[in-house]
Amino acid sequence: MTKKLIVGTLIASSIFSCTTTTKQAESSSEEITQKSSDPTVITYPEFSGEEPTKPEQTEFYEPVPPTVQPFSKNGAPSDAIVLFDGSNLDNWISSKDSTTADWIVNKDGSMTVKDKAGDIQTKQNFGSIQLHIEWMSPTEIQGDGQHRGNSGVFLQNLYEIQVLDNNDNDTYTNGQVGTIYKQGTALAKASVPTGQWNTYDIIYHAPEFNAEGGKIKSATVTVLHNGVLIQDHTEIKGTTPYIGWPKNEAHGKGPIRLQDHGDNSRVSYRNIWVRELE
Ligand code: MG
User: Fold this and answer.
1) 92 alpha carbon to ligand 1 midpoint, in Å?
2) What's the confidence (pLDDT) of residue 27?
3) What secondary structure letter does DSSP report for 239?
4) What is the whole-number distance in angstroms between the Cα of residue 134 and the centre of ligand 1?
5) Residues 211-256: pLDDT tens digits?
6) Which residues pair with 209 in a beta bridge?
């Protein structure tokens, strides 16, 4: 009697198990079908169809990219707009009142923040850009935290990439050198010793807004600091105020602005050039 019960249970369980397996197979097959027809899955129509059998079937000759001569304009590419080559501040104005930029132009081809002169900005407005800029913290150490060699590169006049003497000088993580100020952290701290020249190579894509003024695409920024990737296509979540949340009011092209932090942070800049991106 007991034996019959066990056999019966085994058979029933076996039938149930079979049914379950079949159902699992069916649902798995359905999932695969659904996934393959998912419109969000990336496909490449130009690389579909019959498999090519000759190399020339996958080669094309148009369009041809424009030729750019690197290192042609005092180190800048031939199609770059040189914003500062060491000779004068003709491409810059005071951010306070749009008068002549009043920072110090040094004999070595650099410029330095002048006490109380305030920020300076380019006369020209820009959208998406590739920007090369070099900066140096003052050799004479003054202050600490945010008050040591603080400056900044503002993209479109709104979004600050922090410049700071962060060597042996801690501060809040989201205000360190190379941060989008108060938004996240840099991927690395890659400064050279204080008093030596740093490079920033910045790829910036401007945000987009709809007709009603709503942001429909965030700005993004990639930054190489002395050749080290410190921002990797990072989303810029809005403006970068000292106090308050990031804001996202609609705007068009804007100047590149360099910060006078106002606390004797006599940061220097040199070799500034920009390439406009589509
Ligand atoms: Mg700053």
Assistant:
1) 19
2) 44
3) -
4) 15
5) 999 999 999 999 999 999 999 999 999 999 999 999 999 999 999 9
6) 215
CATH number of 81-276: 2.60.120.560
HSE value, Cβ hemisphere, 13 Å, CA-based, for 152: 26
Ligand 1: distance of its center to the CA of 106 in Å?
Answer: 22
For residue 243, report the distance from its CA to the centre of ligand 1, in Å: 13
> Of the candidates 129, 133, 110, 109, which has an alpha carbon nearest to the alpha carbon of residue 226?
133
Residue percentage of the chain with pLDDT more than 70: 87
Q: What is the CA radius of gyration of the chain?
A: 29
- For residue 43, report the distance from its CA to the centre of ligand 1, in Å: 43
Tell me what the mean pLDDT of segment 258-272 comes to: 94
Q: Which tops the pLDDT comparison, 8 or 272?
A: 272
pTM: 0.85
Joined together, the tokens standing for residue 233 give: 């296509």
- 61 CA distance to ligand 1 centroid (A)? 46
Please state the domain extents for the chain: 81-276
What angle (nearest 5°) sits at the alpha carbon of residue 262, between those of residues 256 and 267? 60
Find the 65 Cα to ligand 1 centroid distance in Å: 37
Ranges of H-type helices in the chain = 2-36
The residue type found at 80 is: A
